[in-house]
Amino acid sequence: MFGVHRHKHHIHADNRHPRCEAELTDPTGPCVECPAGAFPLSSAPCDRCVRLVSVAGGRRLRKRLAELGLNPGSIVRVVQSYGGGPLILAVKEDTRMAIGRGMAQKIMVTDDGSMEATA
Amino acid sequence: MTRRCCDIETPPPITLDETHVRVGFHVALAGNPNCGKTTIFNALTGARQHVGNWPGKTIERKEGQIELHGYDFTLVDLPGTYSLSAFSAEEIVAMDYLLDARPDVVVIAVDAGNLERNLYLATQIIETKLPAVLALNMMDAAEARGLSIDTARLSAALGVPVVPMVARSGRGLEALKAQMFDAALNREEPCTCGCTPEKLVDYGREVEREIAALQDIARTHPVLRHRYDTRWLAIKLLESDPNILARVSALDGTEALLDAAQAGIRRIEAALGDDSDILITDRRYGFINGLVREVVKRPPLDRHTRSDRIDQVLTHPLLGLPVFAVMMWLVFQMTANVSSYYVDWIDGVIAGPLTRWTAALLGSVGLGGTWVESLVLDGVFGGVGGVLVFIPVLAFTYFFIALLEDSGYMARAAFLMDRFMHWLGLHGKSFIPMLLGFGCSVPGVYATRTLENERDRLLTGLLVPFMSCGARLPVYIVIGVALFGARAGTLVFAMYILGIVVAILVGLLLKHTLFRSDEEAPFVIELPPYRVPSLKSVLLHTWERTKGFVEHATSVILIASIIVWLLVSIPVTAAGEASFAQVDAENSALAAVSRWIAPAFEPAGFGNWQSASSLVTGFIAKEMIVSTLNITYTGEAEVEEDVATTFWQDLGEIGLTFVQATWDTIRATLSLLPGVDLFANEPVDPVEEAGGNATLVATLQSAFTPLSAVAFTVFVLLTAPCVTTMAALRHEFGTKWMAFSVGFMLTIAWLGAVLVYQGGRLLGLG
What gap in Å lies between CA B501 and CA B89, rounded to an integer? Predict the structure, then answer.
């Protein structure tokens, strides 16, 4: 059901997206370059629930991330994201997990329609 | 015995016999990192525990004893892991223990406030069909957030008893003990045919079909069907778990099973379009997600927890750094400086009253002035004293590290430093051991315990001794003042920087050679919620670790001290005039050995026996380098003034100085707070520090050129760590890695010194 994206074209050079300081009223639109509205997690704005689509990486890495709760289909909320630094995510609602920005660029997500439901 | 559910033979259920009364039961404690597993362990066992390493690993193994209704229970604390998938050395250790030791009960510690992620490991363990009890820990924090958990329903769904508890306060502890006892005594060997009990997780039609097919094959194997639960085995094979694949292929007659597993994986991937191991993980989480929705009720808005709000400051890339700097400064000050009052006190007691009493005692049995007196006072006291003076340093280190860990701040410190440390191939948590290394390498090496990954821990431990410790500072100062006068400060600064630069280079070198991993480990740090640390747990931790150091380090340090004492005592060249233990430095075995070593340092510009012998004694403690230079160059040793005192005066003095040390510690601690200045600044004069010894300064000026002096300090900076650090490395990483560290550092130190000297000469500086 979830395709395995191994191609590197998902990684966006420009990730000025996160605007943590500002109150987010306007959700960031999906990336135009990626199919089906997918964009890298590194571009996801703060406080936004996103659904994980795929991880560009080796089998071992994908398995590891999946075991930590970053499995395809799971809903992740970005708690903190500043500039080029690591991101803090809310994984499985209660877990706070910091991940490197490099890794976040390899994780493709889509906007989660049911975001308010998990709040 | 044959079970009704299937027609294959299963081993009879274990009946209680004398063996169990005598040997007792084994309980494994498993759980995620940060789920309060250690607190549960401490609450169950108290101080009756033994801390060591898993055989052949640098992974901590804690074992404790408890007695329940007359039966002995041995509790083994497994490494904290997120899953049982052979991803890290810790996971393999945990899985091997569960599979090979087959504990009578597995207590699965779970953070009630973080149920979904924690249940992943729990379901994996329950699937092994080992008798299990789920300890739902930290219920207080979950309740404070408004979560309510239906434990009865959770227990029914998982098929294991669930005990809600708060290990820190002891709530639910008795219930956990009762469930442990019941599970161990009423244990019935599970049926291995997979027909019962029912499956925990439904992996979906395609996967279930393959699981059933593999179970059919595994059931016919004479060994496998008894050793593992066949359903669990089938799932692990479909996940291509390397540890399980290796275990199965090591047995005869398993080719068919392995081939079938491969074919099954191919069919699953063709049908579902994703890797079978990820699909299995996905389904497991799907099951857990449904379960958590059923049993956990949460308040409508639970987005920003208290921890999230604190983190808005503490993990902020700008605001977080000043807090981090203050925290690190405090930890460093407390371990390196504030602890020094107790260090001085111990030092004073050993050098003063204890030495006087022993001398008087030996004198009264007619051994005064003999070699026995010298052996006891110089050799043994030197060695034991060398261990004892580290106790305050380590106790302070462990105390503050435990405080940082327990409060949850350690993960934030790692988060802030990770970008910088990652560049060296290290984890963010490596920063603290490195920082402590500037005070003393020994607490630095022990602080590597906070790292979760074996590779990170070892690499950090090898780099810590390159940080210029406090004991090396007097060497730079004495040499610097003697040869560079007012510019001594530049030399000192340069040495600190050089240590860091060499550590970076060595880190990069090791990262790309010995420690090369095939795949970059994902940078993922869990940020546990902030908690008020429990004093009991912190003190227990401090006590256990400090005790461990004394137990392990004493023998090594004592032996080394006695060897050096022998070298100094044995007369070699002037055999006629000097007797054993009463020999000038020049005529001792130390001088003879040093003369033999010295030519090796010729290319570095300091190929004389005096420098070489100071390096030999520097193995015991780096601060001995200066005193040895003093003795060998000037023939003078510092003479302790002898004041005649009575036993009671001495005893009073010990008590008084202890009170003084405690008062000084409190004063120094308080003066760390801004605005509090109880601590009168006592400026330290470097020349004073150097002993104010004009003779030594003059002699050093004639013995060293500025260039060879720099080469010498470079060697002192980079050379093999002192014997206490070696003992710490051996304690943490084993003899092999200690030997590696010593050899490696000696090589680098020699190369560095030669490079400086020869390079300087080429540039015309010599």
Answer: 30
Backbone angles phi, psi at B572, to 5 degrees: -120, -60
Percent of chain B with pLDDT over 70: 88
Average of per-residue pLDDT across B513-531: 76
For residue B218, what are its two tokens?
């595994």
Residues of A in contact with B522 (CB under 8 A): 61, 64-65, 99-100, 103
Least confidently predicted of A9-18, B234-243, B460-469, B745-754: A9-18
User: Residue B197: is the preceding peptide bond cis (ω within 30°)?
Assistant: yes
Q: Measure Cα distances from B726 to B552, B717, B720 in Å.
A: 11, 15, 8
Query: In chain B, positions 367-426, which contact chain A (CB-CB < 8 Å)?
Result: 411, 415, 418-419, 422
**Chain B residues with beta carbon closer than 8 angstroms to that of A53:** none
Query: How many Å separate Cα B444 from the centre of its chain?
Result: 9
Q: Which of residues 192-251 of B touch A (CB under 8 A)?
A: none
3-state helix, strand, coil in chain B (%, to 5): 65, 10, 30
Structure tokens, B104: 């009578």
Q: Does A2 touch chain B (CB under 8 A)?
A: yes
- The residue assigned the tokens 């462990």 is B398
User: Measured between alpha carbons, how far is B150 from B146 in angstroms, rounded to an integer?
Assistant: 13
Encoding tokens for residue B69? 């209704």
> What whole-number distance in Å separates Cα of residue A93 and Cα of residue A95?
6
pLDDT, tens digit (0-9, with 9 covering 90-100), for B263-280: 999 999 999 888 899 999
Nearest to residue B502, comparing CAs of B751, B207, B222, B328? B751
d(Cα B97, Cα B30) in Å, to the nearest integer? Answer: 11
CB-nearest to B282 from A4, A72, A94 is A72
Give how far B737 is from chain A: nearest CA, Å.
29
Q: Which amino acid type is present at position B468?
A: S
Phi-psi region of B476 (alpha: psi -120 to 50; beta: other; left: phi over 0): alpha
Identify the closest residue of chain B to A52 by CA–CA distance: B282
A-B CB pairs within 8 A amount to 128
Instruction: Give the integer Cα–Cα distance in Å for B345 and B659.
Output: 10
DSSP per position, B301-312: --SS-HHHHHHH
Read off the pTM.
0.78
